[in-house]
UniProtKB/TrEMBL annotation:
Gene3D superfamilies: Zona pellucida, ZP-C domain. The keyword Signal applies. It comes from Sinosuthora webbiana. Keywords: Disulfide bond, Signal. This is DMBT1 protein. Residues 1-109 form the ZP domain. The lineage of its organism: Eukaryota, Metazoa, Chordata, Craniata, Vertebrata. The keyword NADP does not apply.
Length: 116
């Protein structure tokens, strides 16, 4: 566990361990839950489909393409659960493959009316 105070800035880093130097990482979706084995019942979205859902969530420039860095301000769930667990989904793509998920950035999906 990592202990922090409320509203303290948390900085996270994910790195890819591969001998292939032509890979890059992208943080797609991160959610928080008070239950380490249930990320569906009570969750808080930090980012979804590469789009920040939390106003304190930020991506930071990585030192290399195979590293992803991001951060957010620490919070707790309303019922004051003692812990908050994170689950993040990252995409691994070919470096400079601009049609890949890693280079699309924020993907917001819009719904159409049935009349359209």
């Amino acid at each position: 566990p990592y202990y922090v105070d409320m509203d303290q800035n948390l900085f996270l880093q994910a790195s890819l361990h591969s001998s292939d130097q032509n890979l890059t990482l992208f943080v797609d979706t991160c959610v928080a839950s008070p239950n380490s084995s249930d990320f569906r019942t009570l969750v808080y979205e930090l980012t979804k489909s590469g789009c920040a859902s939390d106003t304190t969530y930020s991506l930071f420039p990585p030192p290399r393409p195979d590293v992803a860095r991001f951060g957010f301000s620490a919070f707790s769930f309303v019922n004051r659960f003692p812990s908050v667990f994170l689950r993040c989904q990252l995409a691994v793509c070919r470096l400079h493959d601009y049609s890949s998920r890693c280079y699309q950035g924020c993907v917001s999906r819009f719904r159409r009316n049935a009349d359209s």
